[in-house]
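Narrative summary of target 7.
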Amino acid sequence: MNDIVIDIEQVSKRYALSHQHRPDSLKSWLRSMANRLARNDDQPKDEEFWALNDISLQIRQGECLALIGKNGSGKSTLLKILSRIIPPTRGQIRVRGRIASLLEVGTGFHPELTGRENVFLNGAMLGCPERLIRQRFDAIADFSGVERFLDTPVKHYSSGMYVRLAYAVAAHVNADILVIDEVLAVGDAEFQKKCMEHLQTHLRTGITVIMVSHNLHAIRTIASNIAWIQGGQLFESGTVGSDILQRFEQT
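Modeled conformation, tokenized:
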């Protein structure tokens, strides 16, 4: 039986970095165009920036893969491609199962809607039918710890309350794969502990987790495998029991 649930094959992501001056008025734009025509200048070309370059990884069912690397190394870009928020420039990703993502704080929430309304909205975005959300609503509210504020527009929520409610929804939609960026660092210590216990329990049932975290203690506690991303490339990968984390700490 093939237990590979995510197959990342030579994935690259390119961005164009524009260095052009953007005129703040029509008059400025016309003057700029006239000057360029007078000088016979070509249109300035954008600089290419490769956020990811030729990444290949295979992730198996029940595995918790931690992506490590310095800020700007490409970890979050890879999570966004996995979550189908942005497409890769080259390469492909094959996914077997349903993904629930927890990326930037507030992603998938409408600020004018209440917490209660956003539970249903976010659940729908994660592919969970309304009837199942209704069945699990009490469990979601209890896990989040923000029951008192469920009828308050989420624009009044703190970042920690956002994360609590978003994680509670993702934890109850029965996703096969959970993708988590550094958002859990926003929550308080008690909620982080609660989330770690939840992840450990669900990993034993066969759910797959891909996480980005700078909390090396959490990685050592939860992760089974590590992928070190450096400069947009896969620098090193292995098990959490290897000395990769120790070498990473020394950089």
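The chain has one domain: 4-249.
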